Amino acid sequence: MQNLKKDKEISIFILMILLIPFLMIPNFVYEFSTQKNLVFSVFSFILFSYFIFKKNDEKLNFSYTHLFFLLFGFSSLLSLISVQIQNPSYINYSLNVSLYIFVIIGISLTITNSFGKNFKYIEYALMAFIITGTILAIDGLLNKFLGFDLFFGKIGDPSQRITLRTTIGNPNFVSDYLAQTIPLSIYFILKPNSKLYQKIYLYINIFLSFWVVLFAQTRSVYLGFTVGLIFFILSLLISKKDLDYKKYLISKDFWIKIFLLIFILVFLFIMFNTNTMFNKSGEVNAISRFSAMSSKSSWDERNLSWMVSIEQFKDKDYPLNKIIGGGIGTYPVYSIKYMEEIQAKNPEKYYYAWNNFKRAHNDYLQVLGETGLLGIISISLLIITLLMRYFKILRSDIEFEKKIMISLFGWIASIIIIHAATEFALHMQPNILIALFIFSIAMSKQFSNSNKILKFNPKIIYTILVIITAFSVFFKYKDTMSEAYFKLGDAENTKMNYYIEIYQSQIPQQITQYENEIKKGQDYIKNMNPFSSEFNSLKKQIDELNEGLKKYKNLQIEYKEKAHQSYKKAFEYFLKSLDFNNNFGKSQFYLAQLFSVSEFRLEEILNTKDLNDIFEGNTSEYKYIVKDFKGQEDLFPISNPIRKDVSNLYNISTTANEKNILLNIQMFYDQINYLESAFLSFNEKNSYRLISKLYYNIIKLYDNIEKNTNNEKLKIELQNKIKEDYKNFIYWNEKSISIIPGGWNRFPEWENVYFEYSYLSINLMGIIPSDEILNNLYNISKKEGKANYYMAKKDRGIPDKSLKLFIELYLQIPDTQIRDDITKNIINSYNDVYNFYKNKEEKNEIKNSYLERYENRIKEFLDNYEYFKRKIG
Fold this sequence. Notes:
Layout: H1 2-6, H2 8-19, H3 32-53, E1 61-62, H4 64-78, H5 80-86, H6 91-114, H7 119-146, E2 148-149, E3 153-154, H8 171-190, H9 196-216, H10 219-238, H11 243-249, H12 252-271, H13 286-291, H14 296-313, H15 321-324, H16 331-345, H17 347-350, H18 363-394, H19 400-419, H20 431-442, E4 452-453, H21 458-525, H22 533-580, H23 585-594, H24 598-606, H25 611-615, H26 647-652, H27 656-678, H28 685-708, H29 712-739, H30 753-763, H31 770-794, H32 800-812, H33 816-829, H34 831-842, H35 855-871
Antiparallel strand pairs: 1-4, 2-3
C-alpha cells in the first residue's frame, strides 16, 4: 500500500475500473456506452496529464504488439481520406472514433508500464474488476427475476431477454463482461495461501456471474467460455513447471478447489437444462440455445452482415477501400446500400436474413471494410504477436502464480476473440476496458523481459496523448450531450403525440356525447310545462351538461396548448442535439417528422416575416438540411440538390387557398429534406417508405390545386411538378422494396410494402396516365411474386392482399385488352409462389405445421390466383 502513495496512477486506474461500468445519468442514457466513453476519456486525460508532471526518470517499455496496435491507430487515421472523398459531412464522427482508438492505445501502453512495476498492482486491479462483476451479476438477476434495476428502477418485462441489460445495455455485453471476470475469480481461488473469506466470496461471485451468463443466452460467449476453459487446461499442461508448481498441482488443496469450481459450473449447467427455479422453470435452456449456433437462419443473417464489410472492402468503384478502407465508423452508413446489392445476387439465401445491422457483428471483417488491408494486417499481427508471447511465457521460468494467471488470461482471450467474430463487445465500455487491461498486462515485464525501451522522453509521448485525449474528451462530451438532448426531445415528442391524441380524438368524442345529450334534453324540454318540477329537474341536468361541455372544451384548448408547448420543446431539443453532434442522424429523423405537425408548423410559417426565408431554408430550423452534398452520390439514395421548395409556385399562385395548400406542401418537402439529409449519417429503413408516402401526398395536393385553379401558368407548372414528383414517388418506393425485398419474418410491418406501393399507385390513376400506372403495377407484382416465393421457402410469403387488390382493379376496368394484360401479368408474376403453396396444399403439408396459422390467408391467395387462371381458359 505504501507504493500506491508513490504510484498514484494505480489508484486512478482502479477508481476508473470501479466507476466505468456504472457511472451514467440514467435519464440521459440512449446508447449505454456513450457516457462511459466520456468517463474513460476524462480519466485518460487525467492520467496522461499526471504523467507529464510526475517526477519519474523511468523510460517506457513496449512490445511488438503495441507497435501493431499503433499501426492500427494510424490505419484508422488514414481511412479518413476515404471519408473525406466519399462522405465529407461524416468526417467529424470518423475522426472522433480514430482519436478514441489512439486514447485506448495510450492507455494500453500506460497499463503495461504502470502495472508492470508491481505484481500486487495487477492483483488489486483484477479484484476491482471482480467486484464490479459481482454488482452487475446481482443487478442482472434482479433484471431477470423482478424486471428491476439497481440504477434504473423498474425496467420492463423480466421474461424478455433484452431486460437483462444492467448498466451495460445489452445481454450480449453483460455476459461478455461477466464471463471474463469468472477466470479472474478462479485465479484468486487457485492462488496458494488465499484467505478463506476471500475464497467464499469468489465462489459466490462465480456462481452469480455464471448464472447470469447462462441467462443472457449469448451463444458465442457460451462457445468462447467453453473453448477458453479447454485452452486454459491445455495451457496448464504444456506450461513449464518447477518443483513447487508440480507439488501444488497434485496437492489436495488444489483439487478441492478444482472440484468446487467444477461443481458450480456443472450444477448451474444442469439447472439450465431442466425446469428449475434457476432458469425460471425452463425459460432458458442452455443446450438448446447453444445448439442454435448451427441454425442456418442464424448463419445466413450473420453472413449478410459480414458480407457488407467484404463488399465495402472490394467495392470496384472505390479501389482505395482495399488499401485504407471505406472509413472508420462508416459501416452503419453504408450497410443498407451493400445489403441491397448482396440480396439481389442471392435472394434465396438473404431475402429472409435482413436485419437492421448497424455493425458487422464481426470486428475483424468490420476492420477490413473500414480500414482496408492496412487495418486488418495490423490487427492480425497484433493477435499473432500476442499468441507468440503467450506461449513463450508458458514455457518460461516465471513464478507459478503468474503461470496460472497467464493461463487464465488465455481463457479470457478465447472469450474475447471468439465473441468478436459474431458481436461487437469491443466497441463498448466497460468491455473495452477489461479486454484492454488483460491484453496490456500480458505485455508487461511481470511476465516477460523481452520488451523494448522507448528512447523518447516519456513526457513527450504523454504530452502528445494529452492533446489527442483533450480532443477526444471534447468529442465524447458532444456525443453525450447530443444523446441527452435527443432523449429530452424524444420525451417531448411522445408527450406531444399523447396530447394530440387527447384533444383531437378523445375529447371530441366526449364533446359529441355531451352535445347529443344536450340536444335531446332541449328537444324534450320544449314540450314540457315550464312550471313543473320535471321541467326544472331536466333544465338543471341540461345546465350541468353545458357545464360539462364547457369543461371539455376548455380541456381541449388546454391540451392543444400543452401539445404546442411540447412540439416547440421537441423542436428545440432535437436542434440542440444536432448542435452538439450534427452526425446524430436519429435527431434529424425525428426532427423531420415534426414538420408534418401541420397545425403548429403552419402557424410558425405564417408568423415568419419573409416567406423567402422558409423557401430558401434560412431560418434556424433548417440549418441541418444539407443544401449541397459534396460526397459520392452513388453511395447514398439521394441526389443534389437535396433542398426542395415551392417558392416558384407560391409566387405565381393567386388565391389564399392555393397559397395555403402550397405551404402545406412545403412542410412535406421540409420533412423530405431532413430525411434525405439524415441518410448521410443515419440510414434508416423507415425513411424510404415515409418519403414515398410524402411524395404521394404532395402529388394529391398538387392535383387538388390544378383541378381548381383558373391560373393557366400555374396549371402548367403544377403538371410539371406532378410528373417530377411521380418519378420521386416511384424512386423511393422502388428503393423501399429493393433495400428490403423480404425480411418480414423479423419486421412484420414490411410484409405490406408491395401492397401499399400498388394501392397508392392505383389511387394516382386520373392524375397520372393509366398506362404508366399499369406498367408500374406489372413491375411491382413481378418483384412481389419473386420476393414472396423466396420468403415462402423460408418462412411465409403470401401476397393475398395484393391479389385481392388486383381483382378489384380488374373489375373496375372495362377495357378487355387491359383486363387480359392484368391477367397475364398476375399469372406470370405469382406463378412460383402459387405452385409452392398449391403443392403444400395438395400434400396436406399446411395443417399441423408452422403454416397452419396462415391457412386462411394461403387459401384466399390460391383462390384469387385461380380466379385469374380461369380468365385465360
